[in-house]
């Protein structure tokens, strides 16, 4: 093999790194062994993960959400090394793969935001707020003062503080994906969970700041807490208000200069990325920014890009037609007319969203489950983690399915791990306590998808009986 | 700022690197300074580059190809540091940005392959072959035995050998983009250039191998050359033959299990990535693999995914309608029906293709142009580099515009740099000779877009006169 194989990107690298690359190329004949995988290898990883993910997503046929298949696939691939098959190991820690996975979850939450609606979210705002507050306070209190001291006796108070904090924040990616996979993103329950998850993120940010400060310097000022809160509120509020004011004007402007579909895509995609960046800058999760971007870019402001005069003309023509003809053509027209920004983003989502969930699954180290004492303690703490969120679901107002809201808040994903990692690095959490949190994260990540699915189906069936008409099974929107 | 800002990807990183990350997070309050830019920063870079690229691509209004705007934008951004503005500097060498740029050019060549057609390519096969062979041999001979010794006297024969080799291989990305931007991808000239560029790549591979071997070990066996040639021919031939045989069968299979648009996208995208990987593995450029993938996945095999029964039904309904109605609806239906794989790939292209051209521009160091002796020598060698390819265009058979073919072969891009870099690392090329090659690459990269544009427009105007009917100006396909 020759260095030529790396040509298209060498153009960029050469200016800075030619002398590093070339000796390696000479030594190995051009392959990239010893200095990380080449770009070709990463292309191959992406292709294999996407094909496998799409294949396991066929479990949608059996009414399961695709995300469950992707998570389990990830767990299997990530632990194949236990069987001596190491090929997938470097994927877990490769910077480029981790970036693409992050890009994937940013795109997913952007999509979810696009499919949500500020006015609708506002209606459930109080419910979301209550669910978020209870869902943060209860697990925190239970973890810090009850199950921590009880199941993991002998640790410092600070350790319990971190354990409690690790049980608070919801990782909304998984829940959003389940609701989306099953076409239930427009339900009140979904809106409450999404809103609560955003508020959760702000609360989690504050708790992390306070707990870290207490552990590090023994105290924290009310001013510091207020400043964090102010930044977060300003970001969310500012983005939504400014966005609402600017988006129609921008949409109008760009539809006037008739810059086409490419411009439409670029503006939408860039807005998501910029808000993800800003969210990260002020300490929120990038996905909160991406979700906000989706809320702002209500498709309506972009629809004018699509030359409404054409579909308007067709619609007028249709009016004078026999009913049968009109109906059969109406749906075609509908599809044509509604090709808005969400549809433009969809293919990019196909390329990257599954990578996030597969990589999330791959980060699960199942050997953690082989240690019985840790496993038992973790089961107990998982129960508390779940009960805390189910109780939070209970305070959701209105005629919603409270259990559904509660289970929607259960996934902790990476959030819990970050708390535990910081606790460990500050020297307050023992390796055992850390392992316990890892197992809790595994359970709270893998349990909700099948449970939410079962509940959503039961709800659909019940609704069908109440209407005494057979309701269609929830269909997937991810195809 | 708090570590929480990095939460969604830490989930993946933590397992392997928690102890590296966390102290840094503590020290800096969670930001990622000192260990490369955070993901949020990369999101911001992407957003800014895409918005700027889309804005400069408005030069399409003035009949210029978008790629020219993107390249010049890149040159400007990449040299802002000369004015003391360093913000864009880290973009040039960031691994993730370079990967995304590479992904962009892979997607572009995949698109170009999708829009090309094996049968059509075969028709111009002989022309492509002749253009490629002359376009490799002539610049190589002129560089090694004529302008090298003449303009850069006093160097070793091996240095001239590398200079000649650096002048051979065409970097087809830029030409393909210009033809595509101006809607001329289906012209005979475009087909000849694309075919020749693929053959060029194989020839360049052989020259690099032979020249490197001569310099390193003093000789090279015919067997080694034959083996390289065999691998390349096997890859291209094998992929096309196997692909032609398998694609209809796979398309049929997957349309039967009715796995939807997501599966269609995944299969197409993954095929491009896998062939890009395989091409790199055997030492060809990844873009050659991606182009081959596009050729294989003739959209026809994928159209069956699109539920033809629906459009078929609509078409039948349309038949019985008054002419006026039928016509106005026919076009809507057409658009609906032809949403094939190329359209699914388009949004992903919007997100990444401009990054490649902007980063290509950014790699241009304009200070190289400030050294007058080097500049003069480079101008002379550029002239030879261009003349060699124009002569190659001359041997293209048929009634094609030979100058257009010739200019289409001119861009050297990163390819020339790789040869020069290897020459330098082997100790045979002086820093001056290397700088000369850098300048030649700049000229051959930046000159062809405006010249190709002017020639394509002149040709279109001429065709219009010949038909004594006003032909539409070439329209952009990139919107």
List keywords for this structure.
homodimer, 479 residues, mainly alpha, 21 helices, 75% helix, 0% strand, globular, disordered C terminus
Overall description:
By secondary structure, chain A is mostly helical. Chain A is 75% helix and 0% strand. Chain A has 21 helices and no strands. The first copy, chain A, has helices at residues 7-28, 39-56, 66-78, 89-93, 95-115, 118-123, 125-151, 157-166, 172-181, 188-217, 222-256, 260-281, 286-296, 308-319, 323-337, 341-362, 372-394, 402-408, 413-425, 431-446, 448-466. The longest helix of chain A has 35 residues, at 222-256. The two termini of chain A are 40 Å apart. Residues 1-34, 303-310 and 470-479 of chain A have low confidence and may be disordered. At the A-B interface, helix 1, helix 2, helix 5, helix 10 and helix 12 of A face helix 1, helix 2, helix 5, helix 10 and helix 12 of B.
In short:
Chain A has 479 residues and is mostly helical. Chain A has helices at residues 7-28, 39-56, 66-78, 89-93, 95-115, 118-123, 125-151, 157-166, 172-181, 188-217, 222-256, 260-281, 286-296, 308-319, 323-337, 341-362, 372-394, 402-408, 413-425, 431-446, 448-466. Chains A and B meet through helix 1, helix 2, helix 5, helix 10 and helix 12 of A and helix 1, helix 2, helix 5, helix 10 and helix 12 of B.
Give me the count of strands of chain A: 0
The succession of helices and strands of chain A, N to C, reads: HHHHHHHHHHHHHHHHHHHHH
- Assembly form of the protein: homodimer
- Rg of chain A, please? 24 Å
Which two chains touch over the largest interface? A-B, 123 and 124 residues
Q: Share of helix among residues of chain A?
A: over 70%
* Averaged pLDDT of chain A: 77
Q: How far from one another are the termini of chain A?
A: 40 Å
- Portion in beta strands of chain A: under 5%
Enumerate the spans of chain A where pLDDT stays under 50 for 5 or more consecutive residues: 1-34, 303-310, 470-479
Decide which structural class fits the backbone of chain A: mainly alpha
Global geometry of chain A: globular
Number of helices of chain A: 21
* Sheet having the most strands of chain A: none
């Amino acid at each position: 093999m020759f260095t030529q194989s790396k040509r298209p990107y060498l153009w960029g690298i050469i200016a800075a790194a030619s002398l590093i690359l070339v000796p390696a190329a000479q030594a190995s004949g051009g392959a990239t062994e010893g200095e990380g995988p080449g770009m070709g290898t990463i292309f191959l990883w992406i292709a294999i993960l996407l094909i496998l993910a799409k294949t396991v997503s066929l479990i949608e046929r059996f009414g399961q959400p695709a995300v469950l298949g992707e998570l389990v696939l990830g767990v299997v691939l990530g632990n194949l090394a236990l069987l001596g098959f190491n090929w997938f190991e470097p994927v877990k820690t490769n910077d480029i793969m981790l970036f693409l996975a992050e890009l994937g979850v940013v795109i997913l939450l952007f999509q979810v935001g696009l499919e949500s609606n500020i006015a609708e979210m506002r209606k459930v705002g109080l419910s979301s707020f209550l669910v978020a507050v209870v869902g943060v306070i209860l697990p925190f209190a239970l973890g810090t003062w009850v199950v921590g001291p009880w199941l993991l006796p002998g640790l410092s108070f600070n350790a319990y503080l971190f354990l409690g904090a690790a049980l608070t924040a919801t990782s909304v990616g998984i829940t959003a994906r389940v609701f989306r996979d099953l076409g239930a993103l427009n339900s009140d329950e979904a809106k409450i969970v999404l809103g609560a998850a955003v508020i959760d993120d702000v609360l989690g940010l504050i708790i992390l700041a306070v707990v870290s400060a207490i552990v590090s310097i023994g105290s924290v000022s009310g001013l510091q807490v207020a400043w964090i809160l102010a930044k977060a509120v300003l970001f969310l509020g500012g983005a939504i208000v400014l966005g609402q004011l600017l988006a129609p004007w921008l949409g109008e402007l760009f539809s006037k200069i008739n810059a086409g579909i490419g411009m439409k895509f670029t503006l939408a995609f860039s807005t998501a990325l910029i808000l993800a960046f800003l969210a990260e800058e002020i300490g929120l999760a990038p996905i909160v920014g991406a979700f906000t971007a989706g809320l702002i870019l209500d498709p309506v402001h972009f629809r004018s890009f699509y030359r409404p005069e054409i579909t308007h003309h067709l619609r007028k023509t249709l009016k004078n037609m026999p009913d049968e003809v009109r109906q059969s053509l109406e749906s075609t027209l509908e599809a044509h007319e509604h090709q808005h920004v969400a549809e433009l983003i969809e293919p990019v989502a196909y390329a990257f969203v599954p990578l996030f969930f597969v990589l999330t699954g791959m980060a699960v180290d199942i050997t953690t489950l082989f240690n019985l004492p840790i496993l038992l303690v973790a089961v107990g703490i998982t129960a508390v983690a779940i009960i805390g969120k189910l109780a939070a679901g209970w305070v959701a107002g209105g005629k919603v399915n409270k259990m559904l809201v509660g289970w929607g808040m259960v996934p902790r994903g990476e959030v819990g791990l970050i708390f535990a990692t910081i606790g460990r690095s500050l020297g307050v959490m023992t390796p055992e306590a850390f392992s316990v949190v890892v197992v809790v994260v595994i359970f709270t990540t893998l349990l909700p998808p099948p449970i939410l699915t079962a509940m959503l189906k039961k709800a659909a069936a019940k609704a069908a009986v109440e209407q005494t008409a057979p309701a269609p099974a929830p269909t997937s929107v991810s195809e």
